[in-house]
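Let's practice the habit of predicting before peeking. Look at the sequence and jot down your guess about where helices and strands might fall. Then scroll down.
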Amino acid sequence: MKRFALLILFLLTPLSIIAQGKGALISFETDTIDYGEILKGSDGVRTFIFENIGDAPIEIQGVKSSCGCTIPKKPKGPIAPGEKGEIQVKYDTNRLGVFRKTITINTNVADAAIIALKIKGNVLAN
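Done guessing? Here is the structure:
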């Protein structure tokens, strides 16, 4: 009787794991945006595009940058499974020279609760 109960438990365990699904999973097209060489005062807005490849909504709980010269913007609501979302970043192109900045994203994704994205480039005088 014990063997039969263990066999049933063993057979049902994989089904319960499969039934739980994979949750929210996030995939970015790129984790670094290279502005290249740009002129002072040019458009500093760039966009990181991501997709929810899981089976639960992704919630972007917060975004922040490594300095005040970079302003990130997160999606307003959750991103459903199979949908795409955007993290918009605006760099202050009135600052001359080479830059490397990090944008930190807090999510509800189990394996990627905190994600670091990067921007880099060189602002040239006109």
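How did you do? The domain at 23-124 is CATH 2.60.40.10 (Immunoglobulin-like).
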